[in-house]
Design brief:
Length: 420
């Protein structure tokens, strides 16, 4: 089979890598890819926003199916567009993608199907939002409705902070805002919970925990993700059952009642409060860097899983995993998440990887056979092991060997699951 992967981050390199391991896959095209995907796939320099050019290329090369990595093209309707031309696609359509594209859409489904989530209100203008905030207890959470690359969420400790958030959102910081959400602050432990769905049935696809803050001890600014580990320490059969029965299944039912089948990965960002799950947000794709952390543990041929999903035969398959732990640490450019230098040389030839080590490229590019940085998050270094401590130790050793002069990384990824 020939397959296309859309995107250019660490998640997409991990998707390409897992597909490459299948003897059913003859050729992979990555749009536009990075230096890592370049070594296992053919990178095609087409702008991901240009659906028409993508479609022409996919048809011309007779690609059997396409996997969409990031949320933006999904929310913009790439699946609906490609399917019009009879192209097979793994990913949710435009309506289903509103689960990530509009927090208010998701909250309305939660309300209708009694899905546990933080209590919330929707506000249409600054005046009503501010007068509500005058009467609130703090901290409180204020969210822009649409996609904001993980930045549209404010946790406000007092009225002054909250009023800044409201003014920024209605001032257009995350695009034109017709409304915003104010929600109750939940205290608990977060967990990322994944399923894969073919529209008719679904299966669990693992759990993980990411670290979003830039500094050790989970301090400092929010980033796209400094690392992750899998599984979450909270995972139990009882909790899994609560999550699927109280959150996932009512959501899929709600979509079905909107005449919409959910196809693709669904990622529930949860807060677990006293062993009870609350939905914080949905993402309509794999997490990044959770994907890089999870896929190395997958035993079943990934291409078969995707193919079964596309053919709506997922129920025929038993998805198997290695019973291991894994940790991913992200090597970032100095300065990230603020300004940083690009085009800095990376030397990776000296690295000696064993079968439990994985390097997934994120912000890299290749020029005259040399690898250069091309973003804030540059490499994802992953180790699979029997225990979290050795997974982290080995990952840190690899990062030390990479010894990249322009880089930094957190040494405490997984601190909740590793006793020092
Ligand atoms: P989101 O983009 O919705 O995942 O929010 C980003 C982060 O804000 C989450 O990972 C949580 O750490 C935090 N957060 C969002 N909503 C809440 C909430 N209702 N209570 C506590 N923390 C929250
Ligand atoms: N790891 C968070 C995300 O992918 O949105």
């Amino acid at each position: 089979m020939k397959v296309g992967v859309i995107g250019s981050g660490g998640r997409e390199h991990a998707l390409c890598f897992s597909l490459k391991n299948s003897n059913k896959i003859k050729e992979i095209f990555c749009f536009p890819g990075n230096a890592g995907t370049n070594s296992i796939a053919t990178n095609i320099d087409i702008d991901v926003k240009d659906f028409e050019k993508l479609k022409d290329f996919i048809i011309q090369k007779d690609i059997d199916f396409v996997v969409i990595g990031p949320e933006k093209p999904l929310v913009d309707g790439i699946v609906d567009y490609l399917e019009k031309f009879k192209i097979k696609v793994f990913g949710p359509n435009k309506i289903a993608s509103k689960l990530e594209g509009s927090k208010i859409f998701t909250k309305k489904i939660c309300e209708k199907y009694k899905i546990p989530t933080a209590k919330f209100g929707i506000f249409l203008n600054t005046k009503t939002a501010l007068s509500f905030l005058k009467k609130c207890n703090f901290p409180i959470v204020i969210k822009a409705d649409g996609l904001a690359a993980g930045k549209g969420v404010y946790i406000s400790e007092n009225y002054t902070e909250a009023s800044i958030a409201v003014n920024e959102i209605f001032g257009g910081k995350f695009g034109k805002a017709e409304n915003l959400l104010i929600e109750e602050f939940l205290t608990g432990e977060e967990m990322s919970f994944f399923i894969i769905s073919d529209g008719k049935s679904y299966k669990m696809f693992g759990t993980a925990q990411d670290h979003k803050r830039v500094l050790e001890g989970d301090k400092g600014k929010n980033t796209g993700g400094m690392g992750a580990y899998s599984p979450s320490r909270l995972e139990t059969n009882i909790l899994n059952l609560k999550i699927t029965k109280k959150i996932i299944e009512p959501t899929l039912k709600g979509l079905r009642e909107l005449d919409c089948e959910y196809k693709g990965f669904l990622y529930a960002g949860l807060m677990i409060v006293n062993e009870e799950p609350f939905l914080i947000e949905y993402n309509v794709r794999m997490g990044d860097p959770e994907c890089q952390t999870l896929l190395p543990k997958l035993k079943t041929d990934f291409s078969i899983i995707l193919r079964k999903c596309i053919d709506q035969k997922l129920h025929e398959l038993n998805i198997e995993w290695y019973d291991d732990k894994s940790i991913c640490i992200v090597l970032c450019s100095k300065g990230y998440p603020d300004s940083y230098k690009n085009n800095v040389l990376l030397k990776l030839e000296q690295l000696k990887l064993n079968k439990n080590h994985f390097i997934f490229h994120a912000g890299t590019k290749i020029l005259e056979n040399k690898i250069f940085s091309n973003g804030g998050r540059v490499l994802n270094v992953v180790t699979r092991s029997n225990d979290f401590k050795s997974a982290r130790d080995e990952t840190l050793k690899l990062l030390d060997e990479i010894n990249w002069e322009n880089g930094f990384y957190r040494k405490d990824i997984g601190h909740k699951v590793i006793q020092e």
